Amino acid sequence: MKVIIPVLLLFVVFLFNYCFAIKQTQQNFDISIDDNNNNNNNNNDNNKINDFNDEYFEKLGYDTNGTKCDICKFGIDQIQKMIVSKKGIDDVSKYAIDLCTYLHIEKAEVCNGLIPLFTNMTYNVLSYPTVTGEYVCGFVGFCPYVPRNSTNIINFPKPKPPHVAPIAPSSSSPTMKILHISDIHVDPVYEVGMNADCGEPLCCRAPNGPGVGSNAAGEWGHYLCDINMRMVESMFEFIDEEFGDEINIVFWTGDNPPHDIWEQTYDSQINASQLVTNLVKKYFGSTSKIFPAIGNHESLPVNSFPLPPGSSWIFKALSYDWSDWINVDEQVENLQYGGYYTLPVQNGLRVISMNMNWCNNGNLYLAENSTDPANMLQWIVDTLQASEDIDEKVYLVGHIPPGIADCIDGWSEQLLQIVNRYEDTILASFYGHTHRDEFSLYYTQSDENDPSSPMRASNVIYTTPSVTTYQNQNPSFRIYTVDATTGYVMESSTYHTDLDQANLNGKPTWLLEYNATKAYNIPDLTPISMDLAIQNMNSSSSMLEDYHVHFYSASPYPESKPCTSISCKLDYICKMKSAAYLKYYECIHHEVNSYLSNENNNSIKSYKKLNILLELDNYLNNEVLKSC
Predict the structure, then answer these.
(1) How many angstroms separate the Cα of 163 from the Cα of each of 11, 159, 169, 185, 527?
(2) Do 113 and 235 sit in the same domain of this protein?
(3) What is the rounded CA–CA span in Å between residue 245 and residue 9?
(4) N or C, which terminus of the chain has less Cβ within 10 Å?
(5) In the predicted model, is pLDDT for residue 65 greater than 60?
(6) Where is each Saposin B-type domain found (predicted)?
(7) Regarding beta strands 341-346 and 489-497, do their DSSP bridges make them parallel or antiparallel, or are they unpaired?
(8) Is 548 part of any known ligand binding site?
(9) Residues with Cβ within 8 Å of residue 627, at least 6 apart in sequence
(10) Range among 26-40, 438-452, 474-488 with highest mean pLDDT value
């Protein structure tokens, strides 16, 4: 799960909230259209509205009036002035702590704990002569991001062979099962009865005091807190009892520590991963092949992964914990160097485990070099080429999905090129991080020699929902049924337990939530069929509402916020169609134009488009639950 750079921009966030009234007066659009009056608009007015639509579209998802962006740049400028004036790290830290405490951005104990953890990184990165406020604020998402180097840095050793469309395996084919767990975030000091709404990044702990009514931490958990050990063990016990030796492979895609990001130490981070490692070993170590990936919460502080060899402390600790599974010398070296590795599953099938923190825009160390940190992208190409040469199929496994805002767009565009180049080698990609249940697709030209040819789906990204309940999520895991010979994914089955019912009944009941083929009304899970699933949801409000419920693992949240607006529909459909974040904006533009295609009056069409974009911006900022 993503935690936005908390120290560097603590006071920026506050100032943004403080200036909210100014923001409202800068641009307060509440446009209602009277179709009968719009014929009076002249062409000049239409052009202005169309220009504004384009400008608004470009800023969508960042800041519609520039306030947040401008304040961010101002804040970075102030810190850099302190650095230039020879203020030391301690001075910058004290300044940030005082501001954080005085302005009540966080409670004093959080300010005092969190800021010192980030001071070295912030000071060092902002000391780079080429790092400007505009660049950093775009990098972390407060302003539109303009990458320094958008050129291709990957080298494909061989041209792409002719594409061979995948054929779904027969339902009678021998199968094996893959367990996918992610974002466990187990909190060992969760305490029943404590306050779940304490005003800190993580609650349900003894120092928070007792909670009242629905704010009291339940026996099995609370929707505002991280999961407790009792619930985690219940899940593992159910999987063991229900599937046992049927689980052949485990994808474990990171984020083990709880969200107590202001209290963490090197020892606590290592201990958190060891705790989960021991659980995985206990239940699956003797019967399954385990393939872990590194999450953004594994390091200290959160999101902070210096370029090699700066992160070797956590990579070496994890390589020791995972030595039962990753014990090939070359791959141990890769893991200790950059947090990535590759291992065979069986003859003809391989896993590539990527360290997606090399695309994490919360990792400020990438502000100076985000093209191919730790040389992982080229390593992925070389590994895929070796697999293609021997007709070996590959699963890609990682933590942060490449199509979301948390993954640097220039980097994700490179990965998109890689996946499309090796689409016949890569069977599918598996991620976590968002805590939500979702999928998305890669697309490529149906005729790659003809840029005007229609797009076709080339590969599938599966994002599994979190084990943790943080926040507003039922604890979940996923089982993939795959062809035992080829590795092709045949079914995706998601399981969860209803947290409210567990607390009410005194024990969890783990249930199948849905099978993907049935839920999406598709014959199989090939990319073409998954694209059909998107089309089905685009034309069926009930199917899209079901997706909305699954997105939050059937927690109470979607009941209070049903997916009935055009904004909700646009957001979901375009997330599904975006394997790189800028593709999301291209999709929004296309879908809005398609939605208004029957409107012949250009003036009315422009106003309606503006209204839709404004409504979508409000939806993204106020109704979509953030990662943290």
Answers:
(1) 52, 12, 18, 41, 13
(2) no
(3) 48
(4) C
(5) no
(6) 65-147
(7) unpaired
(8) no
(9) 1, 2, 3, 406, 433, 434, 435
(10) 474-488
Whole-angstrom Cα distance, residue 625 to residue 24? Answer: 22
Q: Is 104 annotated as a binding residue?
A: no
Query: Cα(325)–Cα(134) distance, rounded to whole angstroms?
Result: 43
Q: d(Cα 251, Cα 184) in Å, to the nearest integer?
A: 13
**304 has a pLDDT exceeding 80:** yes
52 lies in the same domain as 92: no
CA 435 to CA 431: how far, in whole Å? 10
Does pLDDT of 407 surpass 70? yes
**Final residue before a domain boundary, out of 502, 525, 560:** 560
- Phi/psi at 64 (5° precision): -70, -15
Are 302 and 268 in contact by the 8 Å Cβ rule? The answer is: no
Secondary structure class of 385 (helix, strand, coil): helix
The predicted pLDDT at position 353 comes to 99
Domain with 584, as residue range(s), is 28-59+576-628
In a domain, 164, yes or no: no
Residue type at position 288: S
- To 10 degrees, the CA torsion angle through 115, 117, 122, 125? 180
Rounded-to-integer distance, Cα 621 and Cα 435, Å = 18
Alpha-carbon span 586 to 408, nearest angstrom: 16
Q: Token pair of 565, please?
A: 């607006």
If you search the block for the tokens 């579209």, which residue do you land on?
57
pLDDT of residue 47: 52
For residue 350 the two structure tokens come to: 């391989």
499 and 585 both lie in a single domain:
no
180 is known to lie in a ligand binding site: no
Tokens of 415: 């990965």
Taking each helix axis from N to C end, the angle separating 566-576 and 527-539, rounded to the nearest 10 degrees, works out to: 180
Q: Has 433 been labeled as part of a binding site? A: yes
Longest dimension (CA), the chain: 75
- Measured CA to CA, the distance from residue 292 to residue 182 in angstroms comes to 10
Residue range 192-215: average pLDDT?
Answer: 97
pLDDT confidence bin for 147, thresholds 50/70/90: low
For range 83-99, the mean pLDDT: 84
Is residue 296 marked as binding? yes
Is 214 a member of any domain? no
Q: Please check whether residues 68 and 133 belong to one and the same domain.
A: yes
DSSP, collapsed to helix, strand or coil, labels residue 292 as: strand
Q: Is 515 annotated as a binding residue?
A: no
Number of domain units in the chain: 3
Residue 281 and residue 426 share a domain = yes
Domain membership flag for residue 259? yes
Does a structural domain hold residue 239? yes
Is 409 marked as a binding-site residue? Answer: no
Kindly state whether residues 344 and 439 are assigned to the same domain: yes
- The pTM assigned to this predicted structure is 0.90
Annotate 403-464 with DSSP letters as a single string. TSTTB-HHHHHHHHHHHHHTTTTEEEEEE-SS-S-EEEEEEEESSTT-TTSPEEEEEEEEEP
